[in-house]
Design goal:
Layout (H helix, E strand, L loop, with lengths): L2 H12 L3 E3 L11 E3 L1 H20 L4 E4 L7 H6 L2 H4 L1 E6 L6 E3 L7 E5 L4 E6 L17 E4 L3 E4 L7 E4 L6 H5 L1 H8 L5 E10 L14 E11 L4 H19 L7 E5 L11 E8 L4 E9 L3 H10 L5 E3 L4 E3 L2 E8 H12 E6 L2 E6 L10 E5 L5 H14 L5 E3 L5 H10 L4 E5 L1 H6 L1 E6 L5 E5 L3 H9 L2
Parallel strand pairs: 3-11, 21-22, 21-23
Antiparallel strand pairs: 1-2, 4-5, 4-8, 6-7, 9-10, 11-12, 12-18, 13-14, 14-15, 15-18, 16-17, 19-20, 23-24, 24-25
Helix pairs in contact: 2-9
The protein binds glycyl-adenosine-5'-phosphate.
Glycyl-adenosine-5'-phosphate binds next to strand 12, strand 15, strand 18 and helix 9.
C-alpha cells in the first residue's frame, strides 16, 4: 500500500470517517460504512453536486430511483450478458484475478456477447503465491442478484443495480410529460450501484457497493459536439472549483476505438492521481441513442421526442457524466492530507474546502473546570449549532484540541477565554494558517457564512 494511502486509511478509521463493514464478524471484504465524519463529508459532496448540477442549472431535474427494477431493464441494457470481466484463477491459492489486468496479457471483449478473446497470453505465474494460474478464462458477470416474492418456488430473480443510471432512462417519459421538459434537458441522480468485482483492494477506490453521481443529458443528434464539449468542461471544472482538486492531478483520457463500447460516439474519462498513478474518477460519454432505443425495443413503448420547433421526431441521444461518490471522497482526502512540523511536534491536517468539511466550527472553553467559562462557551455552542455542524471539545489543553480538529479538517476553532467574559469577544483560529483573530460573538455567524460563501 502506498504510504499516503496507508495514512489515510488509518485516519479514516481512527477518526470515524470510514469503518470496514461488519467488523465484529471479521469484516466483509471490500464493503465499507461511512462513520459519523465520513457521512457528513459524503453528504456535503452530494449536496454540492446537486447544487451545481441541478439547482444552479435551468434544464436539470433530480430523481431518486429505486434500487430494484424490472429484470427486463437489465436485459435491454445488455448487462445480463455483456457486463463481464475475464476471470482467471490460481490453482494453488485459489485467488481470482482479472486476466485483462495481468502483466503481458492482452484481451479483447465483444461488448455484445460479453465474450473475451485472448489476443496475447501472458505469464501463468500467480502474482500472489507464484503458483500456477489455470489457463482458462471465465466470463464473470458482475451483476448481483436477489429474489423477490414471498412464496418459495414462485420468487423472481431480480438484479441489484449494476449501474445507478438505468432508472433515469426508464423515467424519461414521465419526466418529459410531467415536467414539460424540452430537449435538451438532463436528469441527475445519486444512487447505489452493486458489482461483483473480481479484483478489489485500494480501500474505497474499488468496492462492491458504492454510489454513482449520474447525469444523463438528453439531446437531439445535431447538438452532439457542442453539448459534449460543454459537459466535459462543466464536469472537469467541478472537481477543481467545487471539490478543490488540483488541476495538475487531473487529466482527460479518451477511450481507444477498441475499448470504446460499440454504440458510443465518443468516450473520455476524467482521471485523478489518487496516489502513484492516474485512475478513473468519472466517465463523460456520448452514448448516442442506444439507451432509449433499447428500452423502447424491450418495453414496446415509443421513447421518442417531437421537437415543436424543427417539427422533427427523434429518439433522444444521451451524454452521460457518471462519477463515483467513494472515489470523489477518496480524492478529497488524498488531495487535502497534510503533515507539517510545528513548535510542539508534527501536526496532521486536512486542507478540505470548508464547504465540504464535516464540521465547520469547534467551540472550546479555555479550561474545562471554570464554570463561568464553560457556561459562556455553551451559549456560543448553542448559538452556532442551528446554523452549522458545530463540535464541542473541552478535553485536554487547547493545543491538543486544535490538533484533533485539524486532523478532521474543521476550518475554524473558537475559544472562549477570560476576555470573553469581559467584552463578549472570542478567538477564532484558522485551520490552514493557524492564525487567530478576535471577533464579537454576535458577528460569528455572519463571519462564518461569509467565509463559506453561503
Ligand atoms: N453508467 C456508467 C457507469 O456505470 P462506470 O465507468 O462503470 O460507468 C462510473 O462507473 C463511475 O463509478 C466510475 O468512474 C467510478 O468513479 C465509479 N465506480 C465504478 N466502479 C466502482 C467500484 N467498484 N467502486 C467504487 N467506485 C466505482
Amino acid at each position: 500500500m502506498n504510504d499516503l494511502m496507508e495514512k489515510i486509511v488509518s485516519l479514516c478509521k481512527r477518526r470515524g470517517f470510514v469503518y470496514p463493514s461488519s467488523e465484529i464478524y471479521g469484516g466483509f471484504a471490500n464493503i465499507y460504512d461511512f462513520g459519523p465524519l465520513g457521512s457528513l463529508l459524503a453528504k456535503n459532496i452530494r449536496d454540492v453536486w446537486i447544487k451545481k448540477m441541478v439547482q444552479e442549472k435551468n434544464d436539470m431535474y433530480l430523481i431518486d430511483g429505486s434500487i430494484l427494477m424490472h429484470p427486463k431493464a437489465w436485459e435491454a441494457s445488455g448487462h445480463t450478458v455483456a457486463f463481464t470481466d475475464p476471470l482467471i484463477q490460481c490453482q494453488g491459492c485459489k485467488k481470482r484475478f482479472r486476466a485483462d489486468k495481468l502483466k503481458d496479457w492482452k484481451l479483447e471483449k465483444d461488448n455484445k456477447t460479453g465474450k473475451w478473446n485472448i489476443l496475447k497470453q501472458g505469464s501463468l505465474i500467480c502474482p500472489d503465491c507464484k503458483g500456477k494460474l489455470i489457463p482458462e478464462i471465465k466470463e464473470f458477470n458482475l451483476l448481483m442478484t436477489t429474489d423477490i416474492g414471498s412464496i418459495e418456488g414462485e420468487k423472481t430473480k431480480v438484479y441489484l443495480k449494476g449501474e445507478s443510471c438505468q432508472n433515469i432512462y426508464l423515467n424519461f417519459l414521465p419526466i418529459r410529460d410531467t415536467m414539460g421538459a424540452k430537449i435538451p434537458f438532463g436528469v441527475a441522480q445519486i444512487g447505489k450501484a452493486f458489482r461483483n468485482e473480481i479484483t478489489l483492494g485500494k480501500f474505497l477506490f474499488k468496492v462492491r457497493e458504492f454510489e454513482q453521481m449520474d447525469i444523463e443529458y438528453f439531446y437531439s443528434p445535431e447538438q452532439a459536439k457542442k453539448l459534449y464539449e460543454e459537459w466535459k468542461n462543466i464536469r472537469f471544472n467541478w472537481y477543481i472549483d467545487t471539490i478543490g482538486l488540483s488541476k495538475s492531478r487531473l487529466r482527460w483520457r479518451q477511450h481507444s476505438p477498441e475499448e470504446r463500447i460499440f454504440y458510443a460516439r465518443d468516450a473520455w474519462d476524467i482521471e485523478y492521481k489518487f496516489f502513484d498513478e492516474f485512475e478513473e474518477l468519472e466517465g463523460v460519454h456520448d452514448r448516442s441513442d442506444y439507451d432509449l432505443k433499447q428500452h423502447g425495443k424491450f418495453s414496446g413503448k415509443t421513447l421518442d421526442y417531437f421537437d415543436p420547433v424543427s417539427k422533427t421526431r427523434f429518439i433522444p441521444n444521451i451524454i452521460e457524466c457518471s462519477g463515483g461518490l467513494q472515489r470523489t471522497f477518496l480524492a478529497v482526502l488524498a488531495e487535502s492530507y497534510r503533515e507539517e512540523e510545528v513548535n510542539d511536534g508534527k501536526r496532521v491536517f486536512l486542507k478540505i474546502k470548508p464547504t465540504l468539511s464535516p464540521y465547520k466550527v469547534a467551540v472550546f472553553p479555555l479550561v474545562a473546570n471554570k464554570e463561568n467559562l464553560v457556561e459562556k462557551a455553551k451559549d456560543v455552542f448553542d448559538l452556532l449549532k442551528p446554523e452549522f455542524m458545530t463540535m464541542w471539545d473541552s478535553i485536554g489543553n487547547i493545543g491538543k484540541r486544535y490538533r484533533r480538529q485539524d486532523e478532521i479538517g474543521t476550518p475554524w476553532c473558537i475559544t472562549i477565554d477570560y476576555q470573553t467574559l469581559e467584552d463578549n469577544t472570542v478567538t477564532i483560529r484558522d485551520r490552514d494558517t493557524m492564525k487567530q483573530q478576535r471577533i464579537k460573538i454576535e458577528e460569528i455567524i455572519k463571519w462564518i457564512k461569509e467565509q463559506l460563501n453561503v
